[in-house]
Amino acid sequence: MIFTTSWDDGNKLDLKLSKILLEHGIKGTFYIPISWKFRSLQDKEVKKLSKNFEIGSHSVSHSDLTKLPSRQLNHEILKSKKELEEIIRKEVNSFAYPFGKVNGKILDSVKAHYLFARTAKELQTDFPTDLLNCGFSVSITNRPRRMFVSSGVFGLRNGFRWDKIARKLFLAAMKNDGVFHLQGHSWEIEKEKNWDKLIDFFDFISKFDDVMFIDNGGLANQQSNTL
Ligand SMILES: [Zn+2]
Questions:
Q1: CA of 82 relative to ligand 1 center, distance in Å
Q2: Does domain 2-226 have CATH number 3.40.50.720?
Q3: pTM higher than the cut 0.85
Q4: 217, 56 Cβ separation under 8 angstroms
Q5: If you measure from the C-alpha of residue 210 to the centroid of ligand 1, how many angstroms do you get, rounded to a whole number?
C-alpha cells in the first residue's frame, strides 16, 4: 500500500514537521502559497524543505479560486508554479486548491500545468481515479466532522479523535492495498497540541511492512507505471 502526506500553507513550523517526517522515513508534499499574509516560511526555507520533500503550489494569494475572474486564474495557477520553480530550481508538478475549492474552469487550467492536484475531500483510501481531483484520508484537526460519524468510521462517544480515525483508515488502506493520505497544517498541529499524537501515529505505522512512502507527485508516477 501507498502512504503519502500533504502539508499546507507554508508556516515556519513546517521545518519542525519536516524533521519528524525525515526521522520516520515519511515522504510528503508541502503546498506553499506565494504571497499570503499567513505564510511565514521564507524563500530560503522553502528551498531547504525542497531538498527532502516535494514542494507544490497552493496558488499565489490563497484566494477561493472559484470566485476569481478567468484572467486572474492563470496568474494564480501558472505564476505560482513559475515562482516556486525559481526558488527551488526544480519542476513543480503538484497543486493544492485553496480551501479545496475547484470548478471546471480551474480544473482545465490546472490540467495544463500540473500532474497532480489535491482537493479537501476526506475519507479516501483507494488509489485516486482522478489525479487532478484527489482527496485524502484524514486531516489532523480536532474539529469534529460529521462525515466520519455518518460513515461509521468513528463514533462520538469518547470525543472526536483524528488519530483514531487515522489508524482505522490506515488499516483499511492496508487491507485493500490502497492509499493512505494524511493531510495537515503545522500551525494547527501546534495550536491543537497534536505533535505527540502525530509522532505516536507515525510510530504505529512504522511497524508495518509493505508500506511504500511517496510524496503526492509520486502518485502520478505510480499511475503511469501501472498503465
Ligand atoms: Zn491552505
A1: 19
A2: no
A3: yes
A4: yes
A5: 31
